[in-house]
C-alpha cells in the first residue's frame, strides 16, 4: 500500500478526525463551522467513500445509516418548512475544543412560518 508493507492481521486505525479535517479536501476554513461548504461544487467533487466516513466503512459500518439519513431528511424538511431561523445580532461561533466541528451553542431567534 503506497510502498508500505502491512503484515497480515496488523490492527489498523483509520484517523477519521484527521481525514475529516484535511484542508486539501474541505478547504482552508476546515476548522470553521460552515455548513455552506456542502454547496461548493469544487469541494463536493472531491468527496468520496474514502474521505467522508461519518458512518464508518467496511463490514462493521453503521447498520442504521440509511435510517439515520431518512430521519435527518424528514425531520429537517419539517423544521425548515415550518420555522425561520435567524442568528441573534452580535453572536459569534465558538468552536468546541475537540470532536465535531459544531458550535458549542447558538443564539437563535426561531419564528413560526405562517402560510
Ligand atoms: C447520525 C446518525 C448515526 C451516525 C453518525 C452513526 C455512526 C456510526 C459509526 C461511526 C459506527 C461504527 C462503524 C465502524 O466501526 O466502521 C456505527 C455503528 C453502528 N450503528 Fe450507527 N450511526 C448513526 C445512527 C444509527 C442508527 C439510527 C442506528 C440504528 C437504528 C445505528 C446502528 C448502528 C449499529 C448496530 C452499529 C454497529 C455495526 C457493527 O458493528 O456491525 N446507527 N454507527
Structural description of this entry:
- With 115 residues, this protein is of the alpha+beta class.
- The protein has one domain.
- Helix content is 28%, strand content 9%.
- It has 4 helices and 2 strands, in the order H-H-H-H-E-E.
- The chain binds protoporphyrin IX containing FE.
- Protoporphyrin IX containing FE binds next to helix 4.
Number of domains: 1
Count the helices. How many? 4
Bound chemical compounds? protoporphyrin IX containing FE
| Helicity level | 25-40%
One letter per element, helices H and strands E, the order comes to HHHHEE
**Total beta strands:** 2
Share of β-strand residues:
5-15%
Profile the largest sheet. Answer: 2 strands, antiparallel
Low-confidence stretches: none
Radius of gyration: 18 Å
* Terminal Cα span: 58 Å
